[in-house]
Structures are given as structure tokens and as C-alpha cells.
Amino acid sequence: MFGRKKKKVWVVAADMGYGHLRAALPFQDIAQNGKIIAANDYPGIPGQDKKIWEDSRRFYETISRFKKFPVLGDFVFAFFDKFQEIKEFYPNNESIDAPTLQVKQVYRLFEKKRWGEDFISRLNKNPLPLVTTFFIPAHMAEFWKYKGPIYLIIPDADISRAWAPLKPKESKILYCASTERAAARLRRYGVKKEQIRVTGFPLPKEFTKRNFAKAKKDVRRRLEALDSEHRYLKQYGKTVEQYVGKVRGVSQKRVVLTFAIGGAGAQAELAKDIMEGAKSLLEGKKLELHVIAGTHREVATNLRKRSGKNVFLHSSPSKKKYFKNFSKILSKTDILWTKPSELVFYASLGIPIIIAPPIGSQEVSNRRWLLDIGAGIDQKKPELLYQWLPDLIRQGALAEAAMQGFVEIPKDGAENIKKLVCGF
């Protein structure tokens, strides 16, 4: 209703990488005091609690970077990843997956170190609905008897057992799953069906239905750039027109490719290979390359020394600024090259994704989901980019991926979650 005061909630993320914060940002307008709370870095956090969070973050980032070392790196990462493994979905033996060592360790820290007690006691002074994008704050809230409702947003296509609590059948956590598979996986872990909603992934407000006309315009522009010989449009032009309007069929001068470096900064070497492989296309003004280094300013500085014509390096002084800049760059991007993090859901905007090698079980699952939909294409050798990228454009393969993502992946996750939490 017009003029109605918005219901306020606690919006909680973990300031570890970009994924959990990215999924939380669309809810800043309903967040108490307009702030997203970092469960691992709030004012007054006990030293012991902060150390547990910090040790976890440093360990993961070290392992992520270590993975690039031949043989030993893969072995060490595979051993670590076993603790957050997502098992094959089929065949279903109809049994409930038991809590893993990772889940038991989290609850042991609650019991032995009283991890999270301070955080939840502070929120309990005003027990608004709690909306979080990471499983640990949700488990903390339930363990320490949070008085308000708890909503857990799942920012991946599939999830490990860690996302379900120790005793899932007794849990009151309400899950907002980004995909049907994630919802089915929760049921496999023992979460009650009535505690699960399939909402879709929450996109930033710049890309919601309120700006749907612009999204369609952007898709039309991409199709003009990504179907140089009109192979896709000749076959599917009528279908395209039904969803986004008529495409002129006139190719723009250059294709805009954006490569996103992840939160741990582990893809810096891949960025160098991409710049080298794209050199002839960049110099011939057939391609414009944007490399987003996030908050890794040193990475951007080092890459800038090796960059050439039509290469733009972006870094930001803070994560808040990074997310704002990312949305601006994305709106003019024709192709997004990224590891299969939560960014796979941005294919819903009609941006085809070139998939960099996944890091960890969740990204393996995200990659599989994206390929099943047809909205992403695995990267080929980056040093040979000048050969295979023009082929994909001539074939219309990237134009097809753009439309597959736009048509098949929901865009209204943020609205669905707000409706569930706030009733509007």
C-alpha cells in the first residue's frame, strides 16, 4: 500500500569474500538502521569470537590461493574440500544425510567456546526478523535461542550438509532457496518441507523488475554484439522478439568482455593469460576488456603494468564501493567471465557466462547447474582467446547462452524474499 512504513529486519552476512555480502545488499532498504551487520566483525565482538572467524577466513583464502600450485595444491585443496563436499544427488537412497564433521565442529564451538552467544544476545534485545545469507549466523541464532524468526538465504545452486542444522527436523529456520535443487537437497538433509521456499537468487535493485525495460534493452544490445552472422537470430528471432522485443540485427563495433577476480584474489594469473590471449582482438578494436579486481588494489596495480589497448582495470577502496562499481560495469557488459560463484545467477540478466575453473564443491555444482540451463560455456585455453571467442560469436553460441539465462533463470528473488519476510 502506498505510504506504508516498511517493516525492518536484521540483515546479517559474513564479511568473508564477496558472496554473502552480495546476496545481502538487496535487503539494505529493509535493514534496521539501513545497515548490513557482519557477524564476524561487529562493534564489540569478543576477541575469541573474532579469532574463530578470522582463522576460518584466513585458512580458506590460503587454501584457495595454494590450489594453483601444481600437484600438491590440488591435493591439499581436495582434502580440505572433502569436509564441505556436496554428494551426488542420484541415486537417492531415501535416507537422511547425517551431520558431517564440519557441522559437528561448528556446534562444538558453540558449546565449548560459546561462539556467537554475544552476537545473538545483542540482536535479542530487539528480536526483529533475522535475514542472513550464511549458515553459521542462522545456526548461532537457533542454538542461542533467538526470539524472532530466522530466514536463511541460500546463494548457491546446491549446498553441502553444513547448511542444515545439527537436528534439522527440530529446526525453525526458514530457508529461501535459490533453486529447486537446493530445496530438494535441504529435504534430503532432513529439513521439513514447510520450512523451505524456492525464491530465486536476490539480485541488486538495479536489475529488478522495476528496471525490466532497461534489462530488455541491454539484452537486445548484447544480441546485436554476440550474433555477428545472425545465425541465432535467423532461427530464433520470433522467440527473442517475444521476450525482449525486436533486435535490429546490426552488430556494434566491439564486444565488451568483463573478467571478475574472486574475493580471495586467486584468479590474478588467469587475468594475465586473458589479457595476453585477447591482445590482437583488443588492438584491432574488436574487443574491450574490463578486469574487476574488487578490493585487491595491489592486484589491479600489477595487472595494469601488463595491460595494453582497450583494457580497463578496476579496483575499489571498499566492498561497498566495489559492489556499486560492479553493477555499473555489468550493465554495459556483453560477456561475463568468472569462476562459478554466486555470479552464475547474473546470467538471468541475459549476460552469457564464460566459466573459469571452479574452486570447491559449491562452485562445481554451480557450474553444472549453469551448463544444464545452457547459460554458460566453459572457458577454453585463455592464451588462445583470439581464436575461440570470435568463433563463439560467429556461431551465435554466446547469443544463445544470453537468451537461455534471461528466459530460464528467475530475476525476482529479492522481491519474493521481502514478501515472505515482510508481507509486501
Strand content: 5-15%
- CATH fold-level assignment of the largest domain: Rossmann fold
**Nearest-angstrom radius of gyration?**
22 Å
Q: What is the CATH class of the largest domain?
A: Alpha Beta
Order of helices and strands: EHEHHHHEHEEHEHHEHHEHEHEEHEHHH
Low-confidence stretches: none
- Structural class by secondary-structure content: alpha/beta
CATH-wise, what's the superfamily of the largest domain? Glycogen Phosphorylase B
- How many helices in DSSP terms? 17
Largest sheet: 6 strands, parallel
Task: Walk me through this protein's architecture.
- The chain starts with 8 loop residues before the first strand and ends with a helix.
- The chain has 17 helices and twelve strands.
- Helix 14 links the parallel strand 11 and strand 12.
- The chain is globular.
- It has 424 residues and is an alpha/beta fold.
- It has a six-stranded parallel sheet, with helices on both faces. Strands 9-8-7-10-11-12 form a six-stranded parallel sheet, sandwiched between helices.
- 44% of the residues lie in helices and 13% in strands.
- It has two domains: 190 residues, no CATH class; 199 residues, Glycogen Phosphorylase B (Rossmann fold).
In short:
With 424 residues, this protein is of the alpha/beta class.
Layout of strands and helices, then pairs:
Blueprint: E1 9-13, H1 19-24, E2 31-38, H2 47-66, H3 72-81, H4 101-113, H5 117-123, E3 130-132, H6 135-143, E4 150-154, E5 174-177, H7 180-188, E6 196-198, H8 212-226, H9 231-244, E7 255-260, H10 268-277, H11 279-283, E8 287-292, H12 297-304, E9 311-314, H13 319-331, E10 335-338, E11 353-355, H14 361-373, E12 376-378, H15 385-395, H16 397-408, H17 413-422
Parallel strand pairs: 1-2, 1-3, 3-4, 4-5, 5-6, 7-8, 7-10, 8-9, 10-11, 11-12
Helix pairs in contact: 8-16, 9-16
